[in-house]
Amino acid sequence: MRLFAVSLPGIILLGAALDLATTLPRRTLTLIWIAVLALAVRQTVVTSRTQSLQVRLPGGLAATTPQTFYKLQFIMQRARPGNLFFQAGWPGMYLPLQLKNPLYRDVVYAARPDEAEQAVQQLKAAHVPLILWTRHLDATCSPDGRCEDNLATLRNYFHAAYTCIQVFPDGDTLWQRTE
Predict the structure, then answer these.
(1) What confidence score (pLDDT) does residue 7 get?
(2) Number of domains in the chain
(3) Residues 6 or more apart whose Cβ sits within 8 Å of residue 55
């Protein structure tokens, strides 16, 4: 997904860089390419050190962090490939665990009130067994539980129809359907 998201801007920037390269002095162009290569090597080293855990998941072999693996493993024990599952904050669990999103939207953080209501209707109709709620979706909530966003309908629904079965170290919560 990451490659897909950055490929078009990357192609445009590459075209602009190639066009600009004809007007730059050779020494400047060489320094730019050295900087690009140094950043690429640094990114590769940092990624291989932080995501050093290689695991086989239903979606294939993946490199991940121990914290993310714990979350993947916990969900994998409760959901089988092909099951419905809703991850509210970011669609990062569907592909590695081969789970299906029951909604027409990938994420709900920027949902309008009518979209949140539609999400509730889709979750009810599909009888989605598990929801992974991302902590940052509650960033607009005050300590007393009131939230200043359009997700109140969705939040109220899953608090009424689901039970929190796990709070992960990063603050995300896994909810299981109770009705």
Answers:
(1) 72
(2) 2
(3) 61, 62, 64, 69, 72
